[in-house]
Amino acid sequence: MLKDPPNYFRHVHVPTADEIVKKVLKRYPELKPKSKRPRHILELELNRLNLTYQIILDKLSFLDQMPKPESMHPFYLELASLAVPYQKYWAAVSGLRRMREKLKEMWEDYRAVVRSAVSLEEAARLRREGVGRALSLVKRSRGALQLIRDFKYAVASLPSIDFTQPRIVVAGMPSAGKSSFVKEVSTADVEVASYPFTTKQVHVGHFERGHLRYQVVDTPGILDRQWDELNEVERKAAIAIRHLPNVLLFLYDVSEEGFGIEEQSKVLENVIRVVGKDKVVVALNKMDAAVEDRVRMAEQRVKELGLPLFKMSLKTKEGLKEVLDYLVKRAEEEFVRE
Asked: Which CATH superfamily is domain 167-337 in?
């Protein structure tokens, strides 16, 4: 299993078709014959042929660094596939590998026929043909190269998750306080604002307890709708919720400004369907501005679901330590089991 796909892809250079062609055309004119003797002219034709194929094959060497989809955790595959389906990425890699083998065969064939040409004119014609066919293949691979580049950038932009350390995922509807919680307890530098959908990406912060380094994952807010109706931002949250948590903290906003308690409860139920009840912990947030009826309704629903329940205020820090201590305990227990 590839340990850190985002970091891995950041260090792999995937060229464009134009980049390959331009390098050939730049280096090509630099080759000159040693003299006008026929053997030196023939040598020049072979050098031009060899230079073209060597540059192309060297630029395609990145293909050997492209990991198979099965070597990547599903979390990365699903997130990256929101931009480029991983099946298309691997089809492009496989297709270019076949093209590379064809180029190697062509190189051998053209070297042989140029060497055995009956005249310098025929040698030049065969060299032009061999170079032209190679560059034509590169140009026709433009789409496949771009697709791989897009997949590379999609993976490289993702947060690095260490699956050998415990993971706490924070979920809830927009403005429930997810980013504030993650920022408060970890190293994550996430944007915090009072308007919905501040978080567009999955962010990861860290903190240490004992011998373990805990990861706290901030997810975009999810609205009350079916998983297959989620937009791209919400799908990022859904993917993190599905694949990452050793324990998941679901935040209710019990202030007057929050979404309805029924709506928030439906989102909680959707989350439970994905990760199961055993991993979910609930906290009623913004208790400093709580509305009594909303608190009572949320408590009743959480009690019916049989989930651990805490009350806290990130503004006053009331209850924060109790929540975090419990999450650490649960995350470590699940991590050890895992």
From this structure: P-loop containing nucleotide triphosphate hydrolases (3.40.50.300)
